[in-house]
Amino acid sequence: MRDLGVVMGKNPRERFAELAQVPDDRINLGEGALLIAAEAYPDLDIDAYLQRLDALAEEARQFLGSAASGAERISRLNQFLFVEKGFIGNQKRYYDRRNSFLNEVLDRHTGIPITLALVYMEVARRLDLPVHGVGFPGHFLAKYVGDEEIIIDAFFGQVLTERDCRERLQSVLGPEAPFDRRYLRAATPREILARMLGNLKQVHIKAEEFEAALSCCDRILMLTPDNPQELRDRGLLYQRLECYAAALADLERFLKLAPNDETADTIREDLITVRRQAAQIH
Asked: Would you give per-residue pLDDT tens digits along the chain (282 residues)?
C-alpha cells in the first residue's frame, strides 16, 4: 500500500513539492525517487513501477520461505536480489545518468550505491524487515537493524563488517580519519532523496547541463529549504545561466545563513560581479 497519496493531474514537480512537505515518516521513498525520474521521463507510469516493487517483494517473500531469524532472512534477501535477480553496481558507466533514475535501475538491474540501496530498502520494507539507508561518506549503504545490525553494500552485493567500514572511511577521508559510528546512522527519507538529487546534479554539471542541474537544486531546496550550500550552488548556476537577480538573492541568503563557510569569502568576491551584472539588466 502506498504511504502517500498524491492528487492525479499534477505534474511531477508539483507532486514532488507536495511530498516534500509531509513528515519524514510519511514519505514514500519509492514514489519520491520515481517523481525525480519523472521529470526526465515525462510519460513515466509511477504506479506501474511501484507495482514492480510490490511484485519483486512478493517474489522475494517466496524465496525467503521459512527463514526465521533476521540474519537468515537478510542472507536470503541478498541471495535473491544480488544473485537470482542480478542487481549490481554499474562500475563501467558509473556516471551514466540512468543510474540515478529508479525506473532505469528496475529495468536494467544496475545503478549506483544509493539507487541500488533504495531498491533493497523498498523490497525489505514490503517484507517488514527494518532496513534503513546509511549516508556513509563516499558510498551509500543500507543496514538491517534487528536482533543484530547488518551493513549491506548493495553496489557490490556484499555484507560489510565494521572493519570494512573503517577502511572505506579512511580511503575517502584519509588514513588518519577516526571512525565514528555516527557515520552509520540511519538516514532520513528526506536526506536520501536530497542525496539522490545531489548525485544527479553533479552528473548534470559534469555534462554542462546547467538547467537540469538547476532543477535538481530546486528540488533539494524543497526538501531542505534553508540548506546554505544548496542555495550557494543554485546561485552559482543562476549566474552561469545569466539569471543575475535570482543568483544575487540566493548568494546573499547563503552568506546570511553561513557567513563562516569555507567558501564564503569567495562568494563575497563573486557577489561584486553579480551585483554589477544584475544592475546592468535594469
From this structure: 333 334 456 899 999 999 999 999 999 999 999 999 999 999 999 999 999 999 999 999 999 988 889 999 999 999 999 999 999 999 999 999 999 999 999 999 999 999 999 999 999 999 999 999 999 998 999 999 988 999 999 999 999 999 999 999 999 889 888 888 889 999 999 999 999 999 999 999 999 999 999 999 999 999 999 999 999 999 999 999 999 999 999 999 999 999 999 999 999 999 999 999 888 865
Task: Provide DSSP, 125-183.
Answer: HHTT--EEEE--TTS-EEEEESSSEEEEETTTTEEE-HHHHHHHHHHHH-TTPPP-GGG
Q: How many whole angstroms separate alpha carbon 233 and alpha carbon 262?
A: 14
Could you say which of 167, 184, 201 is where a domain stops? 184
Q: Is residue 168 part of a domain?
A: yes
Residues 29 and 151 in one domain: yes
Task: From residue 230, give the alpha-carbon distance in Å to each of 112, 193, 233.
Answer: 22, 14, 5
Among candidate residues 184, 211, 239, the one where a domain is terminated: 184
Residue 214, helix vs strand vs coil:
helix
d(CA 134, CA 249) in angstroms, rounded, equals 33
Q: Coil, strand, or helix at residue 195?
A: helix
If asked whether residues 28 and 112 sit together in one domain, one would say: yes
- CATH of residue 97's domain is 3.10.620
pTM for the predicted model, two decimal places: 0.92
Domain around 268: 226-281
259 and 166 housed in the same domain? no
Same domain, 119 and 251: no
| Residue 119 CB contacts under 8 Å (≥ 6 apart), including other chains | 53, 56, 81, 87, 102, 105, 106, 111, 154
